[in-house]
Design a protein that fits this description.
Shape: globular
Radius of gyration: 27 Å
Structural class: alpha/beta
Helix content: 25-40%
Distance between the termini: 64 Å
Largest sheet: 11 strands, mixed
Number of helices: 19
Strand content: 5-15%
Strand order of the largest sheet: 1-3-2-8-10-9-14-15-13-11-12
Oligomer: single chain
């Protein structure tokens, strides 16, 4: 082998720093500290060789008497060693760096490629889940899996309003009573909500697809069953929407991304099947931020019905905005790191992020298998309890899902509860609960782990990259809707060594233990969108319900006045598998307040409430039937 060929071999090796256990090959190394422009040119030329390299025997067979070759080996081994600083691992000498490079080429890379070929050819994490399963239960004993249905309150005297808009803001239980008593048919109800979706969906940019044919088919089936004397429960004939990361056969599941805009998946998500069996009627696939990140998607950016000039935030943008505006009675969204809590708070709706593992996720695009959770956006805490009861349970295709034996939120004696409140709490909630007999006390959640936000980012980003490895390798990230979001984060995730990913999980375990020890109350109340708390809650897997607590004037209102408002909300947190406690407290608060019943001014804007950059009208495609 010539000295030039020998040098090229080791320049190629320099890029294979994944021998450290990194999840991927290191990206371009700058030339600031690593030699001449000639060497930089050679490194860039050989990057293409690396990407096309076919696994085989290690190509180092230099004649050791060749002094020039030996010098080149030493030079490029130093290059490899120095590049390890990007992994906080630049403590190896040249000899060890050479060993690592040889091992990477001979062993690691062939295994990496074999594994990718086996499980990573499809994006989205819909198949071949990791066998590493997160269990949020505190202690060694798991909650027994005897599932008992909740005991819903019996409503009486519910009358059909004359105005269809009044119908669209009724609760799930109220609508269910109208259907059960045949004051309205499911087909009528479906028509009312589809009309409202088509009227306001384009304005809010909150709808991807109207599932109109499927909806009328399911509504007719619900009406026929009722005519036969078969009533399936409070969701019988009730319309709803799904975040568009949830698969439904015959309709697009776009994940909010231009890349997957026309994707149709021939699978029924578990949560969709649960709602189908409860008699609910799917009327729309609602916007998700692109690849479940924030509120920007291929059709625009979803707006907040309470303030049409601002956006909804969070990737469950469509479910939050649509529920707030009365386009659906309830919707299913998801959270990995704030995508239920943030849009619920911004749009002023009640929403539940359940305990991790409560709701099965098969058929749903995955970001992180140890963080993803599905939950409902509703009119009230009571509705959240109804929806949770319908969708909870063990999904055989989701290794993390469990039959959690939740208590009945409708049977909780709140006077026996001790509830803490944090410094950033909305005191009205504390005062209301105290007036209803709850023992409320000042509280602080103590833990020593300082890297909570970093732990979540490492966990989420590496897991996401594993699910969208092919997407990045094929350059599809170049057409992503917001280049400062996933593209940047997932390139950085390429640089996270496996060992440091696992160290983050160990630190996560320490955090969970400290939260367990510090959680000395039955529940606590505090800001639902504090970022540290959002990260902590998702890492621990604890439930929180977001409840509206008021409205305030927007900042810098127009001189002529405005009806737009900023919503005020709070979060009620409970330990894992104690969702019923948070729900019971939310119901108690809402039983004597009406913040959750307020309607946004989407159809009643002031004279100066012009929408900047008016959204284009979207005509979502509709395909197929159930």
């Amino acid at each position: 082998m010539s000295s030039d060929a020998c040098s090229a071999t080791w320049i190629r090796v320099a890029f294979f720093v994944s021998s450290l256990g990194s999840f991927a090959v290191m990206q371009q190394i700058t030339n600031d500290n690593y030699g001449s422009s000639l060497l930089e040119s050679q490194r860039m030329e050989n990057l293409e060789t690396i990407l096309s390299h076919k696994p085989g025997p290690f190509p180092y067979s230099c004649n050791q008497n060749n002094t020039s070759c030996s010098v080149k080996i030493s030079e490029d081994a130093k290059l490899l060693r120095d590049s390890l600083k990007f992994f906080d691992a630049n403590f190896f000498n040249d000899t060890k760096a050479e060993e690592m490079a040889k091992g990477a080429i001979e062993l690691n890379i062939p295994i990496f490629r074999a594994n990718r070929k086996l499980v990573a050819s499809h994006n989205g994490g819909l198949h071949d889940p990791s066998v590493l399963v997160f269990n949020p239960e505190w202690g060694s004993k798991e909650t027994p899996g005897q599932r008992k249905p909740f005991s819903y309150p019996s409503l009486s005297g519910v009358k059909r309003p004359d105005d269809d808009e009044d119908i669209t803001f009724m609760s799930v239980l109220e609508l269910g009573q109208l259907v059960k008593t045949k004051q309205i048919t499911s087909q009528e109800l479906t028509r009312i909500f589809l009309q409202r979706l088509k009227r306001y969906g384009p304005v809010l940019e909150s709808v991807v697809s109207y599932t109109e044919d499927l909806a009328y088919k399911q509504a007719k089936e619900a009406d026929d069953l009722l005519d036969q004397g078969k009533y399936l429960g409070p969701l019988h004939g009730i319309p709803y929407g799904l975040k568009d990361i949830i698969s439904v056969p015959g309709y697009r599941t776009t994940w909010g991304s231009t890349t997957f805009e026309n994707q149709k998946l021939n699978m029924k998500a578990w949560v969709y099947k649960r709602l189908r069996s409860a008699g609910a009627v799917l009327v729309a696939k609602l916007v998700t931020g692109s690849l479940a990140y924030d509120d920007i998607w291929f059709g625009g950016r979803t707006r907040n019905p309470w303030n049409i000039e601002e956006f909804s935030t969070g990737s469950s943008a469509g479910p939050a905005s649509s529920t707030s505006a009365g386009l659906v009675p309830f919707a299913i969204g998801s959270e990995t790191a704030g995508s239920i809590t943030y849009p619920a708070a911004r749009c002023g709706v009640t929403a539940l992020r359940p305990t991790f593992g409560t709701v099965g996720r098969s058929g749903v695009m995955s970001i992180s298998e140890s963080l993803d959770k599905l939950g409902p956006f509703c009119r009230s805490a009571r509705d959240c309890a109804v929806i949770l009861d319908a969708i909870r349970g063990k999904d055989l295709d989701d290794l993390s899902s469990r039959d959690i034996s939740l208590g009945d939120p409708f049977s909780v004696d709140i006077t026996k509860l001790t509830v803490g409140y944090l410094e950033d709490v909305e005191m009205e909630v504390v005062n209301v609960l105290a007036s209803k007999g709850v023992n409320v006390v000042p509280f602080k959640l103590n833990y020593t782990v300082e890297s909570v936000q970093g732990i979540l980012n490492i966990t989420m980003d590496v897991d996401m990259l594993a699910h969208f490895d092919e997407w990045q390798r094929s350059g599809q990230d170049d057409v992503y809707e917001a280049q400062d979001q996933w593209p940047v984060e997932l390139r950085r995730a390429r640089m996270i060594p496996a060992v440091d990913y696992l160290q983050a999980q160990r630190a996560r375990g320490k955090l969970i233990q400290e939260i367990h020890e510090s959680f000395t109350v039955d529940a606590f109340i505090g800001n639902a969108t504090d970022w540290e708390r959002v990260c902590m809650g998702n890492l621990v897997g604890m439930p929180v319900i977001v409840v509206p607590t008021g409205l305030k004037s927007i900042e810098n209102p127009p001189p002529g006045g405005t009806r737009r408002r900023t919503t005020i909300t709070t979060g009620i947190y409970a330990p894992p598998s104690q969702d019923h406690i948070a729900l019971a407290l939310g119901m108690a608060y809402q039983s004597v307040t009406d913040h959750h019943k307020k309607r946004p001014p989407i159809d009643d804007l002031g004279p100066n409430d012009l929408i900047p950059d008016p959204p284009r009208v979207i005509h979502p495609h509709v395909w197929g039937h159930d």
